[in-house]
Amino acid sequence: ERADPVPPPPGGLPVTTWGRNRDLSTWDAPAVAELVWAARDAELRAVAAGASLSADAARALLALQASDWAFVISERLAEPYGRERAAGHRADFDAALRGETFEPRNLAPRASVAPLLSP
To answer: Which DSSP string corresponds to 56-73?
Structure first.
């Protein structure tokens, strides 16, 4: 059973850099559209891989999904670096999906692909 949503505090929510204007434009905006679509493409390919999806590929997908590179790009904090790192996560995912090894840098060392494969 779902709980009722918690109402915002009196006076509303404060504006923060993490979700400026209380929306997702920090992470989903024209400046970072290619990152958003690349992550979505990777998600769909991971699910399509089914039982052949490796734990390395799952870890690389997590890095692609969970990183804040879209934030640093949209906020113009480290745009070239953010694009390079996002491209690196995508390359790691592509390599892992092909069965190649890469160094996941201790990201989710006990990752399971089960949640990606469950209905």
So the answer is: HHHHHHHHHHH--HHHHH
40-88 tens-digit pLDDT: 999 999 999 988 999 889 889 988 888 788 888 888 888 899 999 999 9
For residue 56, give Cα distances in angstroms to 38, 39, 84.
Answer: 18, 16, 20
In angstroms, the CA 117 to CA 51 distance is 7
Query: Angle 33-49/79-97 helices, nearest 10 degrees?
Result: 10
Q: Which residue has the tokens 């769909």?
A: 44
CA–CA gap between residue 52 and residue 46 (Å, rounded): 9
pTM (whole model) above 0.85: no
- What is d(CA 77, CA 112) in angstroms, rounded to the nearest whole number? 33
